Automatic annotation (TrEMBL):
Keyword tags: ATP-binding, FAD, Flavoprotein, FMN, Nucleotide-binding, Nucleotidyltransferase, Transferase
PANTHER family: RIBOFLAVIN KINASE, RIBOFLAVIN KINASE/FMN ADENYLYLTRANSFERASE
Annotated protein name in UniProt: FAD synthase
UniProt catalytic activity: FMN + ATP + H(+) = FAD + diphosphate
Alphabetized Gene3D superfamilies for the sequence: HUPs
Keyword Transmembrane among UniProt keywords: no
Enzyme Commission designation: 2.7.7.2
Native source organism of the sequence: Sporosarcina newyorkensis
Database matches in NCBIfam families: cyt_tran_rel
Length: 182
């Protein structure tokens, strides 16, 4: 398998693509469903598949949440999922102050035919950007929430709570991985 091509925000330019945007902390089953959906669309169109993500994830930066997946692990996981390009934005005070317009200018360089995001997706300073803003540059689709067999939403927040409650087996199940005893 070829190594994944990783770029910093603003570096990548493509004539066309399908992309997904998200923190993807944990790369849990919900994230995997979103990434797989967008990847299948890229395969249909025969264009590169781009994942745009953040290091650290915004909740880790703003809310001091625990990090579920260090970037090196995230990169390996994305490579195994068949991602062509990953853009990793260094999430800090400067990046968080970017306007909606600045983010859209960057995305235009990648020429996305479609953009796929998770539920309740916001971007830009103060979470002022919405999927309607993304629709100005590309067709934008929102992946519905993914639920576990008990009907509960799979989310990074829920997984963190499971780890904090010493319910690692359940957390790893939602991550789609096996608990290892290393």
């Amino acid at each position: 398998m070829l190594p994944i091509k990783v770029y910093r925000d603003g570096e990548l330019e493509l004539p066309q693509s399908i992309m997904t945007i998200g923190a993807f902390d944990g790369l849990h089953l919900g994230h995997q469903a979103l990434i797989n959906r967008a990847k299948s669309r890229a395969e249909i169109y025969g264009v590169p598949f781009v994942v745009y993500t953040f290091d650290p994830p915004p909740k880790v930066y703003f809310q001091n949440q625990s990090l579920l997946t260090p970037f090196a692990e995230k990169e390996k996981f994305l490579r195994n999922m068949g991602v062509d390009y990953t853009i990793v934005a260094s999430f800090d005070e400067h990046y968080a102050s970017r306007s909606v317009g600045e983010f859209l200018v960057e995305l235009r360089k990648i020429h996305p035919q479609e953009i796929w995001v998770g539920p309740n997706f916001y971007f830009g300073k103060g979470k002022s950007g919405t999927t309607q803003d993304l629709n100005m540059i590309s067709k934008t689709f929102e992946q519905p929430v993914v639920r576990c067999s008990k009907g509960e939403v799979i989310s990074s927040t829920r997984i963190r709570k499971l780890f904090q409650g010493n319910e690692a087996d359940q957390a790893y199940c939602l991550l789609g991985r096996q608990l290892t005893n290393e």
